[in-house]
Amino acid sequence: MSELPAEKVAVGVVGASGYGGVQLVRLLTHHPAVELTYLGGDSSAGQSYTDIYPHLAGQVALTMEAVDLEAIADRCQVVFLSLPNGLACKMAPTLLERGCRVLDLSADYRFENLSTYVSWYGVERDDQAMAAEAVYGLPELFRDRIRTARLIGCPGCYPTASLLGIAPLLKQGLAQPETLIIDAKSGTSGGGRAAKTNMLLAEASNSLSAYGVARHRHTPEIEQICTHLARHEVTVQFTPHLIPMVRGILATIYATLRDPGLVRDDLLTIYSAFYRSSPWVTVLPNGVYPQTKWAWGTNRCFLGLEADPRTGRIIVMSAIDNLMKGQASQAVQCLNLMMGWDEALGLPAVTFYP
Amino acid sequence: MSELPAEKVAVGVVGASGYGGVQLVRLLTHHPAVELTYLGGDSSAGQSYTDIYPHLAGQVALTMEAVDLEAIADRCQVVFLSLPNGLACKMAPTLLERGCRVLDLSADYRFENLSTYVSWYGVERDDQAMAAEAVYGLPELFRDRIRTARLIGCPGCYPTASLLGIAPLLKQGLAQPETLIIDAKSGTSGGGRAAKTNMLLAEASNSLSAYGVARHRHTPEIEQICTHLARHEVTVQFTPHLIPMVRGILATIYATLRDPGLVRDDLLTIYSAFYRSSPWVTVLPNGVYPQTKWAWGTNRCFLGLEADPRTGRIIVMSAIDNLMKGQASQAVQCLNLMMGWDEALGLPAVTFYP
Amino acid sequence: MSELPAEKVAVGVVGASGYGGVQLVRLLTHHPAVELTYLGGDSSAGQSYTDIYPHLAGQVALTMEAVDLEAIADRCQVVFLSLPNGLACKMAPTLLERGCRVLDLSADYRFENLSTYVSWYGVERDDQAMAAEAVYGLPELFRDRIRTARLIGCPGCYPTASLLGIAPLLKQGLAQPETLIIDAKSGTSGGGRAAKTNMLLAEASNSLSAYGVARHRHTPEIEQICTHLARHEVTVQFTPHLIPMVRGILATIYATLRDPGLVRDDLLTIYSAFYRSSPWVTVLPNGVYPQTKWAWGTNRCFLGLEADPRTGRIIVMSAIDNLMKGQASQAVQCLNLMMGWDEALGLPAVTFYP
Amino acid sequence: MSELPAEKVAVGVVGASGYGGVQLVRLLTHHPAVELTYLGGDSSAGQSYTDIYPHLAGQVALTMEAVDLEAIADRCQVVFLSLPNGLACKMAPTLLERGCRVLDLSADYRFENLSTYVSWYGVERDDQAMAAEAVYGLPELFRDRIRTARLIGCPGCYPTASLLGIAPLLKQGLAQPETLIIDAKSGTSGGGRAAKTNMLLAEASNSLSAYGVARHRHTPEIEQICTHLARHEVTVQFTPHLIPMVRGILATIYATLRDPGLVRDDLLTIYSAFYRSSPWVTVLPNGVYPQTKWAWGTNRCFLGLEADPRTGRIIVMSAIDNLMKGQASQAVQCLNLMMGWDEALGLPAVTFYP
After folding, report:
1. Phi/psi of residue A300, each to 5°?
2. Is residue D184 over pLDDT 50?
3. How are strands ordered across the β-sheet holding D249-256?
4. Which chains touch D (3 or more CB pairs under 8 A)?
5. Which residues pair with A304 in a beta bridge?
């Protein structure tokens, strides 16, 4: 492990009042190499942070400030942007120019090719150069590029769970890419803290449904990385579902094996080897399938595997905490890499069960 | 509608203390053509039924009795068997011989070919003739045979949701059967009332996982009917998941269309036509996907459809109440058919939302 | 039972898009003596009702209309008002003048003395005469007055659960009124369908808290009726809590007995006698405490009792469905009385458990 | 803070497979001054600990062993006993004699006067001397005695939440003790990991009920400490409720103030002063009431206060995580005191919200 810096790195969070923001604040206040120096958000500027989140009483002394990029750049070496889509791409250039490292949790910097973003997000953009510079912040696949990046496009929650389950399959050519089906299930915190009727407990509890079928915006994000892994164009079927729970994503992934003779033990060996140097991915033993709550409040991804000799398919189950490995703690994992620190620094590894 | 009988039909429930049993008791006490004359179960014999289920105070005056087949046959014209697998096949012959109609909610009479049952359930059976006589109690597909049956093998909860979603596809030859993937999600009441650690609220709440991947016993049951519909051997991929809610099943079904030119409107038209005479199946309009709670406490199945032109697949979402259309109320629907009554008699059609 | 009318009574619902509204629509479409002729609400006027609530597909053919009092009075003999506080008192006079019966589900007509309303609700009102004419719609206590009323102020959900638990105590002088403490717990549907951050599943699930301590607006409503029952001024302690569930209220009520020699059996006898003619109140046997889900989707109230010889207190547990007996089905119970019909007509009595 | 020991202290857990056990294992594996050397439990002896709890893969390498007191004493300096009531009192004497410190999480050592235990728990005991030696492990009240103890009777979950809310009232003579009513609400994990029907998700979800009214065994435990604080015999009313959530207790406490002129600000000042040296108790600001999930996975207790000038009562809301401050992490807090370490060592202070 590299040593900690003599001085802590000054870090700011823009958009600190949402769920992504409060995870970042919780993580960064306990991170041994970081000092949180700025919390921002226009709508709550002037409010004490513990007025918004009283459970942090005695832990966070900062007040929410307005979003003034010059002031932020003066006070922060690293800035996390945790804002709705379409805002980060207006802020990051100024911050980068002033020498900040930027980690964006929105979709703005996830696409190498802006035309994909434009067509799926319905927003005009002409900053292709900056988009192309940004590195996709999935450390298990792009560790080296993240180390030297100054701008990170942090992955969506569904793509994180999906790609960690798919990567060994495509990288090793084990499966037929055109057969990939991802049936994903998420807790409702993925919808954010803004009040929406369908996210009310009265509506979402005791029930279950799919949404965004055949047109969810995480589809092209998954496809971009699958295409990269398979080294040819890949189209996937992606279906998200809303589950009556707060946190957690389970992606159940189906693919037809190229070699139907592969058995579960073979696949466990291949997956274990693939993730040998990835401390945050746990390949579960034979016959154990992941529970999403095992990942609650941690940066871990649990993978379970099954091969079905009757159908020739592999079934991969990938479980994460959507707000952690699917969002905030993965961004801090990227920060650790960018700073040359241990990849695990300051990140929670074990939940309290049940 | 045919007229109600001058005298009510005497009905008994063996295995009345479980979740299937209490649904039957609730339905049959409110059914206008039925009189509940016997409730049985060896472990709770002698207990007043409202001691077991106090919410029925003032509604059910019966006491649980021991399982004495002769006594049951004396007092009942129709008997529902709601017991663990392997018991009904020991009781039904006696009851049938004595002239009772029998509706079995276990797996014992679901398989035309006993060898399938034997290999998936691991139990020896040699009553192939009786198994072959039993009719699979899915009224939307086997209405005519049910009308004249004396022994019904009521479908499992997952097969009901799955088959109602799949039937038009296979019957009309719209999809490639070997591409069928059923990703199903169920509330925990499907596991019954017996106390199991993994079904505790402390374990199952706030979490989500798959189970029985590639080997759940509802797989051959689904395949048997798919094979019947497609008129050739069909193998399906079936994956059940445990959802932190009490009731409800959502089956998300994937299949590759034979004609990739079919669009959603075409499919809605085909499905609506297929279920025109089936009052319990609602094909939802364009872009509306079913919520499982819409079916709570009712005999309805809600179907939502999507065609994905990017992948050439159809995605069908099928939602039911696992204890009702997936079990008890579907059995009463079969009873209505067997008795020549209106198919909807005494069955709840609308839930209270939310 | 009085006979049903030759013609169905025409009924309208103003404010049909909320949770109270959708319960009313569900109840009234299945009520044998009623025809639903108008559904209104300004914000959703023009929308098909099944666009708002797709689970009613095939059950309700009406479209939401703007709120035009003259048009409503032309088409309805009875009008339910299910609106935020402060609106009904502007509409009811016109409807009454045109000969309609009016049942208001808001707080506007719950107070005999308008000054109580004004001081707790912070709204000016000068229609004391109309307020005084309105009858408090709790049938178990005011059955006779409801029969002849033309304007009903339907009780709040907490007051319904609380007062049904308290009434025998105060009416018979069994308890010291100044010792009354009501610790009430409610599912989140009591907060309505409007999107609020604290009602999101992500916020309210897995958690529990009190709110409105010592100042909730249902306090004076409970006190008004307690004062009436005790025949002298009564002040109560009322504390509501938000529970991570959709429906249901449990009120746990504490009071010091005047005669500490009373035992549980005495109290059960007194309560059973008090509610002998009230089909919707079930006094549970010795040692059985109510579960809120026993009342789910029904008009029932379950009461459990305990006397504590160590402390000289009675503890009453009162469970209802907050949207049914606590709101919509109780309003229909009042309608039944106003029309001279059987009190139970068209009302659901038994839930599906679990 | 005192320094950490040169060598880690060897610690064992008997009864490690239950919910209390797995919290201890999680806490102790991350505690900087402790080495976990023994995990025991007769029923699971021989099983790898991660077979029981797969989410600990890579974190805990121990195997469950049989309960052999001599072997345990050889390998452990400190032993936590996390067993059903009535077992610890048979094990602790041997362990103490061999020089171990013992922290018992059952009720066996909570009562100074064994006759109270005998009458409420229905078990014969004749080890009054050892019972009298044991110290009640509530650090905020008995910090000094814990520091020098060798045997700790760790408090129950309800008593912890209740007593932290009550202590300032009785210690300062602010309230009339005979008016104390504790209406407590708990998540279902308080019932442990043993499979019971009423704890199934299907039963306990979507519902709410009281249990053990007027006779729950935590009553005398609360009364014992209240009596100690008030310096005269105190009887309390205690009512527990089962809430559809996994973790958390909220105790809503009612008491009549001796001086009805006291206002909320006075009470906040008194409570804040009382807990000034108690880092784990947070007195919330004016008008903020605790959410149980704020304490999830932490050793914190959040207190909210309200004075009601209309009734002369104080209402205290006390929220903890029942498995942490209510059980396992409080036991580790006691260990920290016994060892002369910082009271906060190795204990989690902040949850991830929501």
Report:
1. -90, 155
2. yes
3. D209-210, D237-242, D181-186, D249-256, D313-320, D301-308, D281-283
4. A, B, C
5. A317
Rounded to an integer, what distance in angstroms lies between the CA atom of residue D104 and that of residue D107?
Answer: 8
* Cis bond upstream, residue C348 (ω within 30): no
- Active-site residue, from B76, B89, B100, B157: B157
pLDDT reported for residue B317: 98
* Residue listed under structure tokens 């094990």: D91
φ, ψ dihedrals at B221, nearest 5°: -65, -45
Instruction: Give, for C133, the enclosing helix (H) or strand (E).
Output: helix C128-133
- Residue D239 sits at φ, ψ, to 5 deg, of -130, 115
Hey, what domains does chain B have and what are their CATH numbers? 9-154+327-338 (3.40.50.720), 158-320 (3.30.360.10)
**Which runs of consecutive H residues, i.e. helices, occur in chain D?**
19-29, 49-52, 69-75, 88-97, 114-121, 128-133, 139-147, 157-171, 201-204, 218-230, 264-274, 328-338
Q: Which of C180, C182, C209 to mutate to test the interface with D (most CBs of D within 10 A)?
A: C209
Sign of the torsion formed by the C-alpha atoms of B336, B341, B344 and B346: negative
Cβ contact B353:C22 at 8 Å: yes
Question: What values do phi and psi take at D197, rounded to 5?
Answer: -55, -45
Tell me the backbone φ, ψ of residue A221, rounded to 5 degrees: -65, -45
Option in D239, D289, D293 nearest C211 (CB)? D289
pLDDT digits (tens, 9 = 90+) for C283-313: 999 999 999 999 999 999 999 999 999 999 9
Instruction: Grade residue C1 by pLDDT with cuts at 50, 70 and 90.
Output: very low
> Is the CB of D199 less than 8 angstroms away from the CB of B200?
yes
D307 has which bridge partners? D314
Express each pLDDT in C37-90 by its tens digit: 999 998 899 999 999 999 999 999 999 999 999 999 999 999 999 999 999 999
Q: Mapped to the 3 state alphabet, what secondary structure does C60-96 carry?
A: CCCECECCCHHHHHHHCCEEEECCCCCCHHHHHHHHH
Contact B296, B105 (CB under 8 A): no
Q: Do D246 and B189 touch (CB under 8 A)?
A: no
- Distance from first CA to last CA of chain D, Å, rounded? 32
Establish how many alpha carbons lie within 13 A of residue D276's alpha carbon, considering only the half-sphere containing its beta carbon: 4
Classified as helix, coil or strand, D226 is helix
**Phi/psi of residue A227, nearest 5 degrees:** -60, -45
Cβ atoms of residues A45 and A215 within 8 Å: no
List all residues 6 or more positions away from D313 whose beta carbon is below 8 Å from its beta carbon.
Answer: C237, D179, D254, D255, D256, D257, D307
CA dihedral B91, B92, B93, B96 (to 10 degrees): 130
D-chain residues near C211 (CB < 8 A): 289
Q: Is D157 a catalytic residue?
A: yes
- Min Cα distance B231 → chain D (Å) is 39
Question: What tokens were used for D59?
Answer: 């974190």
Q: Find where tokens 């990739």 sit.
A: B260
Query: D93: alpha, beta or left, given left = phi > 0 and alpha = psi -120 to 50?
Result: alpha
Interface test with D, best of C162, C188, C207 (most D CBs within 10 A): C207
Cβ within 8 Å, pair B205-D245:
yes
Q: What are the C-alpha distances in Å from B183 to residues B8, B213, D231?
A: 42, 10, 63
Shortest alpha-carbon distance between residue B311 and chain C (Å): 28
pTM (two decimals): 0.97
Using alpha carbons, list the distances in angstroms from residue D54 to A344, D22, D62.
20, 11, 13
Mean pLDDT across C96-125: 96
CA-CA-CA-CA dihedral for C104, C105, C109, C115, to nearest 10: -150
Smallest Cβ–Cβ distance between B202 and the set D189, D197, D203 belongs to D189
Question: Do B245 and A241 lie within an 8 Å CB cutoff?
Answer: no
Distance from CA of A338 to the nearest CA of D (A): 25
